[in-house]
Amino acid sequence: MRYIRPVPSTPVSGPAPDDWSTRHSVLTTAQRTADLINALADDHPAPADVTAVLRAYGETDVGLSPREVTEMRASAALLREVFAAEDTNTAAATLNRLLHAHTGRLRLSSHDGATPWHPHLDRADDAPWAEWLLASSCLALTVLLWDRQRPPGGTCASPSCDNVYVTQGSGPPRRYCSRRCATRERVAAHRRARAQREAP
Ligand SMILES: [Zn+2]
What we know:
Blueprint: H1 26-39, H2 47-56, H3 66-84, H4 88-102, E1 107-109, E2 118-120, H5 129-148, E3 153-155, E4 164-166, H6 179-198
Antiparallel strand pairs: 1-2, 3-4
Helix pairs in contact: 1-2, 1-3, 1-5, 3-4, 3-5, 4-5
The chain binds zinc ion.
Zinc ion (ZN) binds next to loops.
Protein name: CGNR zinc finger domain-containing protein
Region (Disordered): 1-22
Domain Zinc finger CGNR: 155-192
C-alpha cells in the first residue's frame, strides 16, 4: 500500500528516527507489526487506536472502517502465532504456512517514487489493509529470521500482559514487551521472595 511521507512524529511506541530509509527498514516494519498486533488485541479495538499506530509509522492515507479493523484482527491473530513460536524451527514453519496461504508473489514497489524501492508480498499497492498487514509482516519477519537464525520476536512473559515484541539485535534474550512489564514482574518476584522469607 500506500504513501509514506515524512511524519512530524510523536510515535505510539514508535519507529526509530525520522529518516527515509530507516522508516522502511526491516526492523521498523517488524516493530510496526508488533505494535499493530498489540493494538488489535482487544475484542473490539477502536479504529482510531489502530489508525494512530499506522500514522505513527508514516501512513497518511488511513481511514479505517470497523470492518477493515475486524479483517486486520484476523491477520493479527495469524501473525501472533509467529511471535508465540517457542523456537526458530517452529517460527520458520509458521511463517512458511502463512506465506503459502496468504501472500502474493514477491515484487518491488516505490509507490511511484514516494518511497525507497522495497519488496512487497501483497498483490497490489492498493491491497486491503488486512492483506497488506499480513504480507508486509510475513516479509519482515521472514527476513529477520533469515538474518538472525532465531525467532523474530516473542510474547511478553508477564502473566498479566499479552503483548508481543520484536527481538532486538544481540544480547540476552528478551522476555518482556516493555520496561514497565519487566519492572512490575521484578517487583512482584521480590515481594514473593520477601513474603517467603518472612513466613513462619
Ligand atoms: Zn508486557
